[in-house]
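Deliverable D4.2, example record:
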Amino acid sequence: MGITPIMDWIRTHYGKDYKPNTRETVRRQTMHQFVLAGIALYNPDDPKRPINSPRAVYQVSPHALALFRRYGKSGRWPKRLADYRRNVQSLTDRFARGRDMMRIPVQLADGTEIRLSPGEHSTLIRDIIHEFAPRFAPGSVLIYAGDTGKKMGYFDRKRLAELGVSVDHHGKMPDVVIHDIKRNWLLLIESVTSHGPVNGKRHHELAELFAGSSSGLVYVTAFPTRAVMARYLADIAWESEVWVADAPTHLIHFNGVRFFGTILLVNFVQFRLNP
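Output generated by the structure prediction step:
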């Protein structure tokens, strides 16, 4: 069951009423520790479920449940508890390895492989690195790729600092940052599967965060499909770009002046000369 049903159960059976705004505290300060201790399993019904999914659920570990059911029923409780404590690490490691196998591998240009938490968000980040970057920023270098599980899947902090940007708290970073070396652009890319695109507010936040950049800034919103994009069209900021993974060879310009700006200008001049 999820955090809210767990809190309801506690209210019913123990008379402890946790307020709705304490859900995150219960998740971080109780259930997370239960998982680490092998008492609870996280998303055992679907290990591929994204870390930040609102449908996340927990289940009492079968080994812990078997132990709890013996409490008070046998004089051998101390031995059973000792056995559990001795084996719990291997049990939790086994489950963690199973979840790790579900992680999404992402191959970087230099051969390095990073593995992101399972889910649509990470799949889109992989597509950005594998499909978008080679087409629209060939020879570029990945600087940052976020991960919903660890919040920071890959970060070349030194390279970003060399470009004039120092980030103390990566929580405000876009999902992907790519350096287009040839044109000296920093591509700030949001991977949109559930949260919003680069809208006016986000555009301003990123401009402030990367204000010290010695590279030009390009704001990009990436969507998995055009159907998802359609839900956010009214929010997308002007002076930004949109890329859709199911049409990887195309780019949509919302008055974007960075990508192909010169090509558009040349076409305009040619049209004026040869209408």
